[in-house]
Design goal:
The chain is mainly alpha-helical and 350 residues long. It contains 18 helices and no strands.
């Protein structure tokens, strides 16, 4: 039966459909970077209950200087195409806003069950690691503004420095503004910038930076307040003067930038055995905290401390890496896709 003439698309539409470029394949470099970044996040959180042991405190200082800046730079880079359009806003709601609401309620409920305390939930006061989703929501909504400004990175750095000396209503606000330069920096990075990081001279420099950072962390740990690299509180709450707060924040931003660049230079660009897990980094990020909190409340870390400073750090690190694979596995993704990547087509207009 012939198709009615009015049902046939005009030639221009047919030509556009046939000329449409196929979707670009995923770049394994960025999946590798996301996997390695989330490994650092997980083992960093896993080291938290070992606070007070010199090796773990040194490792904490080294990793926390750049692991969230790294994660945020990647998030900023992949936010470049965001605009306040229907498709992008829907993706932001299903990929960030709804998972935030679910996990911001799930974590305090879980802790109240573990500790027997009353369940208290405030959507504007994220609990534990869920602060990142709320910050990402704010950063991504502000993307069109940063793309219109003449000196976006300079403005972001100034805002970060000011947040180090001004008391804001909530530590999450202080953190969101403090980490802002890394998100804006990620927005400005192009594929050419990442290609420069993958050159041989850049990799050699990255190895030297990593070695120098390791030695520096070991020497500086007894003299550094770890709150400086958490961006949670202004300097006056950490015993710093007005000028010292500016100086410390500027130094922390610079260290985070240099170490993030060094890390990205060392990320393999080819497809590896862990590339697939990079696409599941949000699953790992949102799920691993339940295991760490459960182990903490169960008193498991008390037994780990009996292994000694080095032994305890080694055991926790190995188990943290195993936790990454468990929470990023296909069974875990199938079980929790409804929460991490919810399907909300029913909630939107067609």
């Amino acid at each position: 039966m012939p198709v009615p003439a009015e049902a046939s698309p005009p030639p221009s539409v047919r030509e556009r459909s046939s000329d449409r470029a196929p979707p670009r394949p995923r770049d394994p470099y960025f999946d590798n970077a996301k996997f390695l970044a989330v490994v650092l996040v997980v083992i960093g959180h896993a080291w938290g209950p070992l606070e007070g042991l010199r090796p773990s405190d040194t490792a904490h200082l080294f990793v926390y200087t750049f692991h969230m800046p790294l994660f945020i730079v990647i998030a900023g880079h992949f936010s470049r195409s965001f605009a306040v359009k229907r498709g992008k806003v829907r993706a932001l709601m299903t990929g960030v806003a709804v998972p935030y609401l679910l996990f911001a309620a799930a974590y305090p409920l879980y802790v109240s069950m573990l500790g027997g305390a009353a369940f208290v939930w405030s959507p504007l006061s994220p609990y534990y690691l869920t602060w990142f989703l709320l910050a990402l929501l704010m950063w991504r909504l502000s993307t069109p503004l940063w793309q219109q400004l003449r000196l976006p990175l300079v403005i972001a750095v100034v805002i970060s420095l000011v947040s180090a000396v001004v008391r804001l209503p909530d530590p999450v606000v202080t953190r969101t503004l403090g980490f802002l330069p890394f998100f804006v920096g990620g927005l400005l990075l192009t594929e050419d910038h990442f290609r420069l990081l993958r050159t041989r001279p850049a990799r050699i420099a990255a190895v030297l930076v990593a070695g120098a950072a390791t030695v520096t962390a070991a020497l500086a740990e007894p003299h550094v307040n770890p709150e400086w690299i958490h961006y949670r509180h202004p300097g006056d709450q950490l015993g710093l003067s007005f000028l010292a707060s500016f100086g410390v924040r500027a130094a922390v931003l610079m260290c985070g930038l240099v170490m993030t660049a060094a890390f990205l230079a060392l990320v393999p660009a080819r497809r590896t055995w862990f590339t697939e897990l990079g696409a599941a980094s949000m699953y790992v990020y949102l799920l691993h905290g339940f295991v760490i909190l459960g182990a903490t409340y169960a008193g498991w870390y008390t037994r780990v401390r009996e292994l000694g400073a080095v032994g305890g750090l080694a055991v926790v690190t190995v188990l943290g890496v195993m936790l990454v694979f468990a929470t990023g596995s296909r069974p875990a993704r199938r079980a929790f896709r409804w929460a991490v990547e919810p399907r909300l087509d029913w909630a939107f207009r067609h």
